[in-house]
Amino acid sequence: MDSDNNAPASEQRRGLLKQLALAGAGLAASGATAAAPVSRSSVRHWDRETDVLIIGSGAAGTSAAIDARRAGAEALMLEREHIPGGSSSISGGVCYLGGGTPLQKALGFDDTVEAMTTYMLAASAPYASEDKIRLYCESSLEHFDWLIANGVEYAQKFSPEKEISIPDGSLYYSGSEKTWPYRNLAKPAPRGHVPPSQHLTGGRELMRALLASAERLGARLEVRATGERLVVESDGSVAGAQVVVGGKTAFIRARRGVVLAAGGFIHNPEMVKLYAPELARCQTPWGRAGDLGIGIRMGMGVGGAVLRMHHGFVITPMYPPESILKGIAVNQRGQRFVPEDGYYGLVGHEIAYKQDGKAWMIVDQTQAYAWKDFRLPIAAQAPTIAGIETQLGMPEGALVQSVDYYNRHAAKGNDPLLHKAKDYLAPIKQAPFTAYDLSTDQAFTPVHTFGGLQTTLDAQVVDAWGEVIPGLYAAGRTSAGLPVAPYMGSGISIGDCTYFGRRAGRHAAGRKA
Amino acid sequence: MDSDNNAPASEQRRGLLKQLALAGAGLAASGATAAAPVSRSSVRHWDRETDVLIIGSGAAGTSAAIDARRAGAEALMLEREHIPGGSSSISGGVCYLGGGTPLQKALGFDDTVEAMTTYMLAASAPYASEDKIRLYCESSLEHFDWLIANGVEYAQKFSPEKEISIPDGSLYYSGSEKTWPYRNLAKPAPRGHVPPSQHLTGGRELMRALLASAERLGARLEVRATGERLVVESDGSVAGAQVVVGGKTAFIRARRGVVLAAGGFIHNPEMVKLYAPELARCQTPWGRAGDLGIGIRMGMGVGGAVLRMHHGFVITPMYPPESILKGIAVNQRGQRFVPEDGYYGLVGHEIAYKQDGKAWMIVDQTQAYAWKDFRLPIAAQAPTIAGIETQLGMPEGALVQSVDYYNRHAAKGNDPLLHKAKDYLAPIKQAPFTAYDLSTDQAFTPVHTFGGLQTTLDAQVVDAWGEVIPGLYAAGRTSAGLPVAPYMGSGISIGDCTYFGRRAGRHAAGRKA
Questions:
Q1: Which chain A residues have a beta carbon less than 8 Å from that of B274?
Q2: Looking at beta carbons, which residues of chain A come within 8 Å of B307?
Q3: Closest partner CB to B297 (pick from A302, A397, A465)
Q4: pLDDT tens-digit profile of B201-223?
């Protein structure tokens, strides 16, 4: 897809794939084990050159490639897997946008930059990246336009239901905006923007559009190509990278910059155990196979600082149907601890990080799933709450007391303890009762990582003193961006990937070659 | 204190101090802002040379100096402040030791390496450093002997009371060994070993002994001398350091290794906010002024990996007197969440990390402090629990319910919810009632940091791939060692400092010059 080359990009890609296939199945498993960066003086010759070298082809890398090309620079994306798109392509594809986007307006929703900012700051305290949140919210309308200009399409339809994905609409409440205490802090608005799709395939649509745009703009892509180490000049600036393409080591010079956009590290169990043990005890690593932490390690190797390495996205997907939310989530002491109608990333966070990974959803017959759901195993069933309590080994009378308290107030339409919205308030009284296991090692609990390299607003990687490492950028889950634990809502991560990926590409393109 | 020099070491130190004083008051505030490491090739000449250069003179640095000298290497300690000892010298001076130390045996306590290991592993899950814990416990008797050999003295007296320090005894239960669930997992034994001292000055006694031993052994010490950057060879190994002594930059060659033992970063508010925001909202940074993260940053600058940067020691000191523990600690929802008789570091951890920093201690008249205590402000006082609940803005009936549940069982000598020990069980019934504020920004809540450089069992700093950076060591709170959140008990940190400091000094001394 090089703009200097007239062959259609897709043909080039096919050609490369064929070439790689011919090279045999013996492609090197990435297994980057080399630690120290490569000194520029030890690189005898560059196998290839480009302006902006991008490690990774997910939403962050592709957005970097698009805006680097728009700024007139050459851009080369390397993708470790056999197809591009990264974990973004298996995500919901939601982008968190607000402040009055054309889609919000067309569907009759008022929103302001201020309300969006306030929500994001409050919902991600105390780890909120304030500068990044403010910039992101202020740029939200422009970023919406950018997505449209790059071929992302939205349907003019709002989905009122609480869903994991949206079957046929493009706008929905994707976070805890309507959940206490956030609904009192900032006026709620639906900010989840998602390409219409079925079966959770919004990410595929999003990446199809962005990859096609990158291709049209002349960005190059090489698949089955992975980064290994950065090449540094004697002044500490980054000159390029040692990579592996088709099983062979090569050195690629990056005249203007290297963008690390290689995802997080959820598929590297050793790193997860070391940095984020709370995630290690969650059931399902969620991401494409390339999420091995390679980009993060490459950056750390040259002195890049890392932030929030223990943080991640923990999904406890109870809904749909919403009816289950009329029950109560309780911890090992039989106590409620989170508004059950909160975003599933908020509920998952509270369980994983604050309840030692253990919790149960207590429902009555009318609230239970109509079927045996694959997501939540049944931990106990009994004709009385006391029976549930005994089966779960909870302190004597503790769960009974919690249910009594909840029922007493739910009957009056109140929830003084956690202020769950009225729609989800109903006494738990119709036997038999069921306890679904919400524990992170028992329930279907997809997780991925949020920790990564510390970056500036222009996605430049900084060292432990906050000083920029010249020529080095990081975006998406290779960086420590907008998403922190607790996660504020679907679309924050893709929003961060695309927006700060763009800034990485643009800033790198503007550096002197 | 150089062994190659016949002048008595203390005289030398006085001479150096005088020299520094004459150099004027204008000593550079450390303010290390230089980011990249210094390349060896850019160092024109070394201002000084030693075998093992140690940045910091607390328990970790001094122990490194002692064992480097015992192994026959030169050792030079730099101390940023005007007197040596670091934060260790203002600590309680407790060392967590077990497995049947002579002091434990003399005072009639049975203990085993296995029980000690089991307790430490369980109490620090899920972040436990298993390898380090096992090695530390297996080496505990030898380490006790080492402390004695270096002049640390213990009194043959056991203190049965729960105390912050020990006024006149040398052995006590310094963690949560007797607290549920730990008492069921491993046979409790008192493992807090502390030099007899008054007014929390055990650390002064400990450091007095260790510094004197280092001096006798011929280790050198320079005060008002701080590390800034590491000097690296082209192969990535560490050759020495750029330091500031008496306001002047100097380069010190370390033939065998550099040991970073410069403490944590609790006095660097920018780092605390960035890496450990839960600690940023705690009232009192606790440590000597040198805890600025300089050592950690120096290590990160050469690619050293960091671990657990969000972790810290959060002290919620309610006792003495123990009587206050008969009350209950509750969160914003009026729920109990931690056994109140747990180690104050466990209670503090639960509040800071799991209850958003907010909690209260509810007591009746017989349980309240007899005086207005400086540690915990009074948040509410009322003739009824319902009155307390209202004043604290808790959900209607929630606290009343928690107190009722507690009282009902406490009257029978049980605590099914949190299994507080019988000694601390008593109904809360004698009006008036008091709520002490345990919130981390309201109560006297001393904190320091636990995050730091990842190290091997020999205290070698490793990079993001787990590979050793040759010539670089870290110990004490500059490293990610035994102490994690929740903190297991007093003496774990000093134990880690002294034991792994020794290993750093010994391993460095054994490297080829």
A1: 307, 454
A2: 274-275, 309
A3: A465
A4: 899 999 999 999 999 999 999 99
Tell me the residue ranges of DSSP E strands in A233-323. 238-245, 248-260, 284-285, 306-307, 312-314
Instruction: Name all domains of chain A by residue range, CATH numbers in brackets.
Output: 9-87+223-312+448-509 (3.50.50.60), 95-196 (no CATH), 316-437 (3.90.700.10)
Answer whether B341's CB lies under 8 Å from B179's CB. Answer: yes
The distance of Cα B458 from the centroid of its chain, to the nearest Å, equals 19
Which residues are CB-neighbours of B119 under 8 A, at least 6 positions away? B175, B177, B182, B185, B186, B188, B488
Distance CA B194, CA B208 (A): 13
Give the percent of chain A with pLDDT over 70.
Answer: 92
Minimum-distance CB partner of A405 among B354, B397, B463: B397
What ipTM does this complex have?
0.90
What are A434's strand-pairing partners? Answer: A363, A381
DSSP string, B417-468: TT---GGG-----SSSEEEEE--TTTS--EEEE--EE-B-TT-EEEBTTS-E
DSSP per position, B231-291: EE-TTS-EEEEEEEETTEEEEEEEEEEEEE-----TT-HHHHHHH-HHHHTSSEE-S-TT-
From the list B327, B187, B354, the residue with the least C-alpha distance to A349 is B354
- State phi, psi for A243 to the nearest 5 degrees: -130, 170
| ∠ Cα A473 A77 B303 (to 5°) | 35
| Interchain proximity B300–A336, CB inside 8 Å | no
Are B437 and B443 contacting, i.e. CB atoms less than 8 angstroms apart? yes
Bridge partners of B2?
none
Q: Residue A212 belongs to what H/E stretch?
A: helix A202-216
Structural tokens at position B171: 């052995």
Specify the pairing of strand B460-462 against strand B468-474.
antiparallel
Contact A34 B465 (CB under 8 A): yes
Mean pLDDT of B479-496: 96
Cite the beta strand spans of A126-182 per DSSP E. Answer: 171-172
Contact call for A405 and B398, based on CB within 8 A: yes
Residue B167 pLDDT: 58
pTM of the model: 0.91
Query: Is the per-residue pLDDT at A345 higher than 80?
Result: yes
Query: What one-character-per-residue DSSP string does B25-88 give?
Result: S-PPP------SPEEGGG----SEEEEEEEE--SHHHHHHHHHHHHTT--EEEEESSSSS-TGG
Q: Which helix (H) or strand (E) holds A270?
A: helix A269-275
- What 3-state DSSP class applies to A385? helix
Strand A284-285: give its sheet, edge to edge. A284-285, A446-449, A312-314
Q: Nearest CA of chain A to the CA of B471: how many Å?
A: 14
CB B445: neighbour CB atoms within 10 A?
A: 26
